Amino acid sequence: MMQTPPRLFTGIDTWVFDLDNTLYPHHVNLWQQVDARIGQFVSAWLKVTPEQARAIQKDYYRRYGTTMRGMMTEHGVRADDYLAYVHQIDHSPLEPNPTMGAAIARLPGRKLILTNGSTDHAAAVLGRLGIGDHFEAVFDIIAAELEPKPAPQTYQKFLRDHGVNPASSAMFEDLARNLVVPHQLGMTTVLVVPDGSQEVVREDWELEGREATHVDHVTDDLTGFLEKVGSPER
Fold this sequence. Notes:
The protein is an alpha/beta fold. It has helices spanning about 30-45, 50-65, 65-75, 80-85, 100-105, 120-130, 150-160, 180-185, 220-230, and strands at about 15, 110-115, 135-140, 170-175, 190, 215-220.
């Protein structure tokens, strides 16, 4: 069977970005703080040991898309309580990234964020990076009616709510499984992977998918990639 050539960026007028581990490098390990808070929440709510909580957390994350969805479905947790707790983290490891901001600004058309996190967390991250002004809107887990990526209805609601044509859109993500539906819908997909020279804390399955047919492009340097894509001779 012949491999389909990757989709290109000609005619792309909408640029959609995941937030965590996509708009900042994996090795900042900011998500590790959220990860630890999630474990504490699960442990306290279910009255189990940290080790038991860790196993439950990772099982729900894999099966439901987010631990929160699993906790809501299986244990009746309220999203507001959960989100407020797990996003109480120190965002100071993030540093302003004006070079990436300039690369995003040069991309032709609209820029949007599609995240399984909350708008408060997104605002804190974008504020620290100094790139918030480049984005038209953030579509978060509340806008998604608490259904996280990779649920198909989440992408469809995002496209509908923001009037996005998938055929002229590109999606940037750090999890290959979250690019399956965007690719099916017609989007050009980019998987953002860790810089190989830095140590990152990830599950093995989270790092899979570089060779998948639903991944058009792979980069470990988002800023450099965007600079090439946004240059006039692209």
